[in-house]
Amino acid sequence: MFNSLSDRLALTFKNLKRKGTVTESDLNATIRDIRMALLDADVALPVVKEFTGAVRERGLGAEVHQALNPAQQIVKIVNEELVSILGGQTRRITLAKTPPTVIMLAGLQGSGKTTFAGKLGRWLADQGHTPLLVAADLQRPNAVTQLEVVGQRAGVAVFAPERGNVFGHDAALESGEGTRSFGDPVDVAVDGVEDARRKGHDVVIIDTAGRLAVDVNLMRQAHDIRLETNAHEVLFVIDAMIGQAAVETAKAFADGVGITGSVLTKLDGDARGGAALSVATVTGQPIMFASTGEGVKDIELFHPDRMASRILD
Ligand code: GDP
């Protein structure tokens, strides 16, 4: 990931470093190159504008650093602004004063929520926590089973709703009286938190339903789960491969559900990086974790400075 963006920026800086002094027109040319490189990497336009605006302003402001030549100063500014649009500081999960800490996962179908639930559970368990995964995705018939399998692989307990309620082979259906009675995901989430409290789990991770596109009903459902469970963290899970659609999706979840951070998945893929570079700015919330593969251990805390270095080195 980021290979093409990295190569483009490296070339831009190489050209800049050849110059002893940096004139305003050199700065403008550099910013133009950066702008094109970011847009080609699928970074959202408002983010590109904010980024290049800040670099230009600070570049013109010519912060005088005795130890650095003008070109190095521009590179330093670009690095700092990149860290800034990636969210600045590393942000860790805030644990509730009174357990259990409730962490809810929201995002489009296929973004990697269920896989990430297992990874986060394992990661927390490795740190001495006693997490419980809650299967509140009742949209897809096999989502509950999938979470159970994920939990088993990760060695983390799972709270699943009563099967009869979920799959609907219930009396109403059998008597031909109409539709299946799927359980209510909000109730399942609340019951899951209650179960954790009873059994002494100190963290609850709630997996919620997603759709292939933003959907008003599911958004409301996720919003209700957040409110009814008093979720401490709502993590928006986003596939890094999603490209330009990242902005609209991220905004919809930030506005419709209310999120406290994001999780970038599939960073092991060959995405151009746009989602990664846009999501913190678009949502106003930090990226907290990176998921880098399908294995249960493929999870990392997200460090904006390290990600910026990876792009610029
Ligand atoms: P959900 O619908 O949001 O719960 O998404 P899933 O957890 O079912 O993931 C969808 C697909 O993406 C599955 O095939 C996962 O194995 C795969 N996946 C999830 N996270 C990653 C990741 O970080 N890297 C890669 N390469 N694949 C992933």
Fold and architecture overview:
The chain is an alpha/beta fold. It has helices at residues 3-17, 24-40, 45-60, 70-85, 113-126, 143-154, 163-167, 171-174, 185-199, 216-229, 245-256, 274-283, 304-312; strands spanning 101-106, 131-136, 157-159, 203-208, 233-239, 261-265, 287-291, 299-301. It has an 8-stranded mixed beta sheet with strand order 3-2-4-1-5-6-7-8, sandwiched between helices. Strand 2 (131-136), helix 6 and strand 3 form a beta-alpha-beta unit. Helix 1 (3-17) runs antiparallel to helix 2 (24-40), helix 4 (70-85) packs across helix 13 and helix 5 (113-126) runs parallel beside helix 6. The protein is elongated and about 70 Å long. It starts with a helix and ends with a helix. The structure holds guanosine-5'-diphosphate. The site of guanosine-5'-diphosphate (GDP) has 18 residues, from helix 5. It is found in: Cytoplasm. Part of the signal recognition particle protein translocation system, which is composed of SRP and FtsY. Its main location: cytoplasm.
